[in-house]
Design a protein that fits this description.
By secondary structure, the chain is of the alpha+beta class. It contains 17 helices and 21 strands.
């Protein structure tokens, strides 16, 4: 290689890296240098084109693939000890008889507690190739002797539906957290169960759903739209990816029933495809706040070493012609800053602060005006209640203080609460009496919040606290049964459905 000039543009990057590796004053890791170069190059294109190492790719794709290999528990580390928060249905731990509330003391006859224990080490130790064995010694609530369990690692399902239950005699509720490989099948199973219970109207909760696989979103939208209706289409620059249309087949099982979708500022990508399809076809109502605004189509290419990159090849458009993607011409940092900007400029509290361009004005078949330019604006806006989620409440939740307090509280009470039953707990448990204890616990942990809370913040925290206890003692769905009982967006959705 000639120093001082580089032979061709195509060799420029590799020539520079060769030169750096050969001449730089310190030893460099070539692999890391190449990874960083590729990553920086893709980030210059748009916020969603990205490079992933083999390990990063595995970690990012796992939630979308619908399963992984391990023992199948969700855990939390409290006082240097691993506590089982949830035993995943259909996983190896359920089959082996693990219980929520069990504490892991030993792994393969070696102590597995103490300050060196962290989430990364726990996952590395408990996950593993299917068919391999791991022995756990457990401290189980209500027992004095350790319980020894041998588990054969295997496939652990990752569920997309957090909750599916009846809100009223004819209105069902389904919360979908992602669009993974199994999400459509999970929806069909949940919807069929609710239909058996009398569901004729549906509230589909896509709040916080950041998206996933396009084909799953299309299949789910097809459940709600009649034959021939446009679901979404794409436009790209290349001939190969110049445009693709996705049309409803008419084979859906919920095409004629009342439908409401819940969205918010964290609903993105596949969530926005469904929201746009429902709104632009005048099929149902959207309630909540403006969605995130991610409408770029990525194609993933695997590289020989197992790493991969995702390149944006097209944009999504709703049936009326709206581009879902919001602008990113000012760079990725400002792009991802928009969520906090929305809060600062008042958009999460009032739709009047949102400025729509007349050039992005579209109409649905029934003449309803909708706007493009980034995200999907709901038909009915429900503001974020800042009185409920004030800085005190956020501090308690985001620093894990509510969760850790609940783990300590339920440690000796889980069995008693289960014997009473969830319905009794839901109706009669007075979580407000625990607020002073929670605040004292927070102060002890270095997060003083004052002696008490009042008004909306106290009401919200009381409900969240009771819901979190339900999650630890029972399951995720029971968390939502309680938490949703005070949800203003859901209240508005149910009120809207009852008018239809």
């Amino acid at each position: 290689m000639r120093h001082g000039s580089f032979v061709s543009r195509t060799d420029k990057i590799s020539s520079i890296i060769d030169y750096v590796q050969d001449q730089y004053v310190d030893t460099v890791n070539r692999e890391k240098l190449v990874d960083k170069t590729i990553s920086d190059m893709l980030q210059e294109l748009d916020p969603h084109s990205a490079y992933m190492t083999a390990e990063e790719r595995k970690r990012m794709n796992e939630p979308l693939e619908g399963n992984f290999e391990g023992i199948g528990v969700e855990f939390n580390i409290l006082s240097d000890t691993i506590r089982i928060m949830n035993v995943i249905v259909g996983g190896p731990s359920e089959n082996a008889g693990l219980h929520t509330g069990d504490r892991i003391v030993n792994v393969d006859d070696k102590p597995f507690t103490g300050k060196k224990i962290n989430s990364s080490l726990v996952m590395k130790t408990l996950r593993g190739k299917g068919g391999t064995l791991v022995k756990l010694d457990l401290k189980r609530p209500g027992t004095t002797k350790l319980v020894s369990v041998q588990i054969t690692r295997g496939t652990v399902p990752i569920y997309s539906i957090d909750a599916a239950y009846m809100l009223s005699p004819d209105a069902g509720y389904i919360k979908l957290s992602r669009f993974a490989a199994t999400s459509y099948d999970e929806y069909i199973q949940a919807a069929n169960k609710l239909k058996e219970k009398g569901m004729k109207k549906l509230i589909l909760d896509l709040r916080g759903n950041g998206g996933g696989y396009l084909n799953i979103a299309v299949s789910l939208a097809d459940e709600f739209l009649s034959k021939g209706k446009m679901i979404v289409y794409t436009k790209g620059r290349s001939v190969r990816h110049g445009g693709e249309k996705f049309i409803a087949t008419g084979s859906g099982g919920f095409e004629d029933n009342a439908l409401v979708l819940l969205i918010d500022e964290n609903s993105a990508s596949a969530s926005e495809i469904i929201a746009g399809a429902i709104q632009d076809n005048d099929r149902g109502l959207l309630i909540g706040r403006r969605s995130f605004g991610k409408g770029l189509v990525q194609q993933e290419r695997e590289l020989p070493d197992g790493s991969a990159f995702r390149l944006t090849i097209a944009r999504y458009y709703t049936p009326s012609g709206r581009c879902i993607q919001r602008p990113y011409d000012k760079g990725s940092e400002e792009y991802y800053q928009e969520e906090s900007d929305r809060f600062k400029n008042g958009e999460l509290e009032s739709p009047d602060s949102i400025k729509f361009s007349e050039t992005q004005k579209f109409r649905t078949p029934k003449g309803k005006v909708v706007y493009g330019g980034g995200g999907i604006m709901p038909d009915i806006f429900v503001p974020l209640d800042t009185a409920e989620r004030n800085h005190q409440v956020n501090d308690l939740i985001f620093h894990g203080l509510v969760k850790d307090f609940v783990l300590e509280y339920t440690d000796s009470r889980t069995e008693a609460l289960r014997k009473e039953g969830f319905e009794t707990f839901r109706r009669s448990f007075d979580a407000a009496t625990l607020i002073p204890q929670l605040l004292a616990y927070a102060e002890k942990k270095g997060h003083p919040q004052g002696k008490n809370l009042s008004g909306g913040s106290k009401e919200f925290l009381t409900n969240y606290l009771q819901a979190t206890i339900a999650r630890v003692v029972w399951n995720e769905e029971d968390f939502y049964v309680i938490f949703n009982s005070k949800d203003k967006t859901l209240e508005k959705a149910l009120e809207t459905l009852e008018k239809n």
